[in-house]
Amino acid sequence: MAQVEVKNDGATVEIADGSLLADLDGKCSILFACKTGSCASCKVRVTEGMENLEAPNELEQSGLATFATDPSERLMCVCKIKKGKIKVEY
Ligand code: FES
């Protein structure tokens, strides 16, 4: 199982290796609205474990080009975790 620590919640959520991080919806305080990479409600800063995330796919690249201001930012709804642990905050 992969782990996602959400600093704002002071809690860690476990999800299956290889999961789309939209699976965190309802399990943490990150807000998921569109789930298509087009609204940025799920934008977080990855503070540890970026290497445990898949590279941004086309949908995420498009959203990041519009909404991200820092390379540490990712859109959780269209991002996959490979395995291991990441720490995020928003
Ligand atoms: S929920 Fe809209 S960009 Fe992720």
What does this structure look like?
- This protein has 90 residues and is of the alpha+beta class.
- It has one domain: Roll (Ubiquitin-like (UB roll)), CATH 3.10.20.30.
- It contains 1 helix and 5 strands.
- It has one helix at 58-67, and strands at residues 2-6, 11-15, 43-48, 73-75, 85-89.
- It has a 5-stranded mixed sheet with strand order 2-1-5-3-4.
- The chain starts with a strand and ends with a strand.
- 27% of the residues are buried.
- The model has no long low-confidence stretch (mean pLDDT 97).
- The structure holds FE2/S2 (inorganic) cluster.
- The site of FE2/S2 (inorganic) cluster has 13 residues, from loops.
Looking at this protein, list some descriptive labels.
five-stranded mixed beta sheet, single chain, 90 residues, Ubiquitin-like (UB roll), 1 helix, binds FE2/S2 (inorganic) cluster, alpha+beta
- According to DSSP, the number of beta strands is 5
**CATH architecture label:** Roll
Bound molecules: FE2/S2 (inorganic) cluster
- The total domain count is 1
Q: How would a crystallographer describe the biggest sheet?
A: 5 strands, mixed
Strand order of the largest sheet: 2-1-5-3-4
CATH class: Alpha Beta
Rg, Å, rounded: 11 Å
Helix-residue proportion: 10-25%
Query: What is the CA-CA span between the terminal residues?
Result: 23 Å
* SSE run: EEEHEE
Q: How would you state the average pLDDT, rounded?
A: 97
Query: Can you tell me the overall shape?
Result: globular
Please give the count of helices.
1
Flag low-confidence runs. none
CATH topology: Ubiquitin-like (UB roll)
Strand content: 25-35%
Oligomer: single chain
Structural class: alpha+beta
Query: CATH superfamily, please?
Result: Beta-grasp domain
